[in-house]
Known about the structure:
The protein is of the alpha+beta class. It has one domain (2-116): 2-Layer Sandwich (GTP Cyclohydrolase I, domain 2). 30% of the residues lie in helices and 35% in strands. The radius of gyration is 15 Å and the shape is elongated.
Amino acid sequence: MSVRIELRGLELPGCHGVLEHERKAGQPFIYDLELELPEPRADDLEATVDYREIVELVRELSDERQFKLLESLAAAVADALLERFATVERVRVRVRKPEVDPGASVEYAAASVRRERC
Length: 118
């Protein structure tokens, strides 16, 4: 049996984007994360993944690197989650960019990535 941990609407600033002013000024990015792992055998934090560690991993990645594409950012987060948390079997990462200007009114742009441990 497995369990799914979800963090929805994790908002962190980042300096990502195709345009130079986006990478200089920064803007908010919103992450929706799903992690699937075996159901814990005990009611103990050591038997699962700590939400705080998930948030810190995403924050570190966003602060340390700049990405031009949402697709690349989402893929890097998904890969990092699988690398850092050995018990995680599958991840789904969606990154939303609310401050986007594609020439028409939109709520946000987003990219989603799924990864599975081999």
